[in-house]
């Protein structure tokens, strides 16, 4: 049985006061990634003026945790696929998942707690599928499959990335292509509570990071490391590292217009956070496990670390933040440029606009999704959400046409 994603919060009862085993490293930045915006910016919306409703577009799923769209299909939106944490990828047709999975990982899946089939994305051409899951030993795998028609060919499986996990929680699970065509992989701090191994501030491990790789194999290597990654050539630092100091980045995304990065990072005992970085910024240390939100956790702020753009306290009902997307569709003009996000314990979806690296006060958008697990964005910029009860919704306007 898959336990509730509320466990992403891992709300432990004790906080170690140990200091990290590695000295903080000042982040670096570059203007080389992500790549250029694909469309011109839309006029800014007004979250206060938005009237929304939820339109069910999928039912009967088993713990849906990711909504992905395959590009270059008959529809500009792309074909919708849903990841079920229990181990299958379903193509959505007429409001139902395909009876035969588009991909079945159940024979090599470790699940329970926060493990399982956690994320998927398609290559920009739509020809290949990339998935993130925990295997029977609880370790993280990112595999590639070639698509044959509407399904993934299991005979083409190729392991792209692998890392051991010390505990069965904080696995991350996001995989997505950035506007630069590189593959980004999100990993939590390895689990337990309070980051007992201090992976958050350890740049030699892939845990507690967002990684950036080119997934094309080179010789015997399953991927290559972009030369403009921020820590390439730094001794003792994992060169795949793109950003670090994250506890459990449960969904991050790129604004398809600006290239800006938005990260939902699940907190420990007291604070959830949304992190924001402008296009081109990389090498950022988000502070975990010395920081939780705007506050000290194990010690002083690391040199050069950055605070979140939004902090969501547990005292107000938050427990496990779910990062979303900036709305860039055309159906809801008043939502243009608004970043949508939510929380597993607090059903009210919220939206905010960034201004000069700061957030306009987040606003309740008037729609509720109990047991929220994930967001999705189709090829036209329209947004979707999923509930653990097995329902996928499209976010639509409630205003008269």
Please give a structural write-up.
- With 401 residues, the chain is mainly beta.
- It has a single domain (30-397), classed as TolB, C-terminal domain (Neuraminidase, 6 Propeller), CATH 2.120.10.30.
- It has strands at residues 52-58, 64-70, 79-84, 88-93, 96-97, 103-104, 117-122, 128-134, 140-148, 151-152, 158-163, 175-177, 183-186, 209-213, 241-244, 249-254, 261-265, 271-277, 291-292, 295-296, 310-313, 321-322, 339-343, 348-352, 354-355, 358-359, 363-368, 372-377, 383-387, 392-397.
- The strands form eight sheets. Strands 2, 3, 4, 5 and 6 form a five-stranded antiparallel β-sheet that branches. Strands 7, 8, 9, 10 and 11 form a five-stranded antiparallel β-sheet that branches.
- The chain is globular, with a radius of gyration of 19 Å.
Itemize the secondary structure elements and their pairings:
Elements: E1 52-58, E2 64-70, E3 79-84, E4 88-93, E5 96-97, E6 103-104, E7 117-122, E8 128-134, E9 140-148, E10 151-152, E11 158-163, E12 175-177, E13 183-186, E14 209-213, E15 241-244, E16 249-254, E17 261-265, E18 271-277, E19 291-292, E20 295-296, E21 310-313, E22 321-322, E23 339-343, E24 348-352, E25 354-355, E26 358-359, E27 363-368, E28 372-377, E29 383-387, E30 392-397
Antiparallel strand pairs: 1-30, 2-3, 3-4, 4-5, 4-6, 7-8, 8-9, 9-10, 9-11, 12-13, 13-14, 14-15, 16-17, 17-18, 18-21, 19-20, 22-23, 23-24, 24-27, 25-26, 28-29, 29-30
């Amino acid at each position: 049985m898959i336990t509730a994603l509320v466990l992403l919060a891992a709300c432990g009862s004790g906080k170690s006061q140990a200091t990290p085993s590695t000295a903080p490293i000042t982040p670096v930045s570059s203007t080389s990634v992500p790549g250029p915006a694909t469309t011109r910016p839309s006029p800014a919306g007004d979250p206060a003026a938005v009237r929304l409703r939820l339109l069910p577009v999928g039912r009967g799923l088993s713990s849906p945790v990711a909504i992905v769209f395959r590009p270059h299909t008959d529809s500009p939106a792309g074909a919708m696929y849903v990841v079920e944490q229990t181990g299958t990828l379903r193509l959505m047709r007429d409001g139902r998942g395909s009876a035969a999975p588009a991909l079945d990982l159940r024979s090599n899946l470790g699940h329970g707690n926060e493990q399982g089939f956690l994320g998927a994305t398609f290559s920009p051409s739509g020809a290949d599928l990339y998935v993130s899951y925990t295997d029977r030993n609880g370790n993280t795998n990112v595999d590639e499959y070639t698509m044959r028609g509407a399904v993934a060919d299991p005979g083409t499986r190729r392991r792209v990335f692998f890392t051991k996990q010390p505990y069965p929680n904080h696995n991350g699970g996001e995989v997505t292509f950035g506007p630069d065509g590189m593959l980004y992989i999100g990993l939590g701090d390895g689990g337990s509570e309070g980051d007992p191994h201090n992976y958050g501030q350890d740049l030699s491990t892939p845990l507690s990071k967002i990684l950036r790789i080119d997934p094309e194999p080179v010789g015997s290597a399953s991927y290559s490391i972009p030369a403009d990654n921020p820590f390439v050539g730094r001794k003792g630092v994992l060169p795949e590292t793109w950003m670090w100091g994250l506890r459990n980045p449960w969904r991050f995304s790129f604004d398809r217009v600006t290239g800006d990065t938005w990260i939902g990072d699940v907190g420990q005992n007291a604070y959830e956070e949304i992190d924001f970085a402008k296009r081109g910024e990389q090498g950022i240390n988000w502070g975990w496990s010395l920081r939780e939100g705007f506050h000290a956790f194990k010690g002083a702020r690391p040199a050069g670390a950055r605070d979140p753009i939004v902090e969501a306290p547990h005292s107000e009902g938050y427990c496990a933040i779910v990062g979303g997307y900036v709305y860039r569709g055309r159906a809801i003009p008043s939502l243009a440029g608004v970043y949508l996000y939510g929380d597993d314990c607090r059903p009210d979806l919220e939206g905010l606009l960034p201004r000069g690296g700061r957030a306009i006060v987040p606003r309740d958008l008037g729609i509720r999704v109990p047991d929220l697990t994930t967001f999705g964005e189709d090829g036209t910029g329209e947004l979707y959400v999923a509930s653990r009860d097995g329902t996928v919704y499209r976010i639509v306007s409630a205003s008269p046409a």
